[in-house]
Amino acid sequence: MAQTTQTEALPSHEEAVYRRPAALTETQMRYCPGCTHGTAHRLIAEVLDELELTDRTVAIATVGCSVYAYEYFNTDSVQAAHGRGPAVATGIKRTSPDSIVFTYQGDGDLAAIGLSEVIHSAQRGECITVLFLNNAVFGMTRGQMAPTTLVGQRTTTTPQGRDPKLEGTPMMICEMLSGIPGVAYLARETMIDPKTVADARRSIKKAFQAQADGAGFSLVELVSSCPAWWHKSPLESLHWIRDEMLTQYPLKVFVDYKRQD
Description:
Helix content: 25-40%
CATH class: Alpha Beta
Number of strands: 7
């Protein structure tokens, strides 16, 4: 059946199987076919609605493909300079502590120019939520190597494949943050099939709940696809995540402030 929004009436004999979350705008997304940014947006919007946080949420869009995020959420939003999302989020949260503030960042933005920002925000235990999309490449700027690029992965700046002797090894953001006391919730998820999408939604919900509870810093890494610069079809990209990326980036909940160890 056709998709419906909250404002459309259904005939009595039909049941709605999909509705656009209120936290998601009706703006058509401009991401490449097969990109999982759209799936991530949907999950964030669903969680904001479920937790009834939408009206007091501020989204921080960053630089990269994430620069478009503010177009898609029915929340207040701010555009941050490259890598500075956590610093902007910190300022907003400290001046408006009742707000729910989240950054939406790619691996080039967060793990390269913005690495110190996210580490120090976690170290201070800033009560913000970071959604980190890791597709192992700079997507918007034409496919250069990112800090998270896999060993042997070909990019426009590593045409023979990433060489660890020259470019080092992939940066493991969750593992790096996992020992910091200010971190309340930290998880790595992906979105390649119904189960992993459901798991990603659960972790996103817990990350926002951690902020709502005042527990501290939270981050969810979403291992994501970039069919355009991986030079793969959407389906091949999902298989590559499963077969290659998850070997380097295993899925795990690293820190859960509610978990009893």
